[in-house]
Structures are given as structure tokens and as C-alpha cells.
Amino acid sequence: MPEPDERTPVDVAVGVLIDGGGRFLLTSRPAGKVFAGYWEFPGGKLEPGETVAQALARELHEELGITIGSVHPWQVELMDYPHARVRLHFCKVFDWQGEFQMREGQAMAWETLPVRSRPVLPGTVPVLRWFADERSHSGPTHSD
Question: 6-28, pLDDT tens digit by residue?
Fold first, then answer.
């Protein structure tokens, strides 16, 4: 299979887990990955033939040890990082089963606006703005 050129976006399923109190889950990028230590919404690349929902269910089980319920597609954002161009498929998830297990050595935090975890991955910033709009939040969404 030919390698994608650097302009071809990599499709990534991203889970925006929201608990009953309206908090959302952020996880840190594990050591050894690009942008290690930055905070983001969990997820990962789509495998060939997978839908966004299938990839999200697989990734969240692999990374966090949970089984998710319904996936609610929300927004799509194209991001250019130094190492790749990614098409982020953000999906809201309101129900899941299982205990959270940080299987890649990452940290997790339930957050509200403004986010206290830092630094925030650039691809996470648009989501925080969308939350601010939905929740009529004024002021900063995070600190650098």
C-alpha cells in the first residue's frame, strides 16, 4: 500500500466523554508520543474499514479500559501539526461501562471551563471554544 503524502489527512476518532454533571474527560498524551504531556480528548486513528464509532469504541477500550455506549457525532476539525495533518472526528459520549484504567501510562482529569490541566494540545482548543459557545461561557477556556 502506498504511503499517504504529508497533505493527506489521517482520520482520527475523538471521544468527548461528558459525565452527568457536565464535566468532560481530558487525558494526557503518554511519554514517547508526539506532544507527550499535552492534554487532549482521548481517541485514535481509524483502521482500514472502520467507521468513526467503531474506531472510537476500540480506542477507548484499548486506552482507557471502558466500553462506550452510543456515539454522537459532533464536529469535524482539520488540524495541521508539524508531524501530520489530521482530520479529527469529535463525538460526544454520555454513557460507558467499566472502571477507567490508564493503559498507556497517561493521566486523566474531569474538567469544566476554564480547563485547569495544561498544556492543552492545539487540536483540543476548538472543542473548548465549542463548549464555551454551548454553555454561554465567557472568558478564557484554558491557560497556556
Answer: 579 999 999 999 999 999 999 99
From the CB of residue 26, how many other CB atoms can be counted at a distance below 10 Å? 27
Rounded CA separation 68/53 (Å): 10
Please, are residues 46 and 55 in contact by the beta-carbon 8 Å criterion? yes
Pick 18-119's CATH classification: 3.40.47.10, 3.30.360.10, 3.40.50.300, 3.90.79.10: 3.90.79.10
pLDDT averaged over every residue in the chain: 93
**Does residue 97 contact residue 66 with C-beta atoms inside 8 Å?**
yes
Q: Hey, where are the domains in the chain?
A: 18-119
Q: Which cell numbers in the block locate residue 80?
A: 495541521
- Measured in degrees and rounded to the nearest 5, phi and psi for residue 29 equal -75, 130
What's the order of all strands across the beta sheet hosting 72-80?
Answer: 43-45, 10-17, 85-93, 72-80
Cut 0.85: pTM above it? yes
Give the Cα separation of 125 and 31 in Å (integer).
Answer: 21
C-alpha neighbours within 13 Å on the C-beta side of residue 114:
11
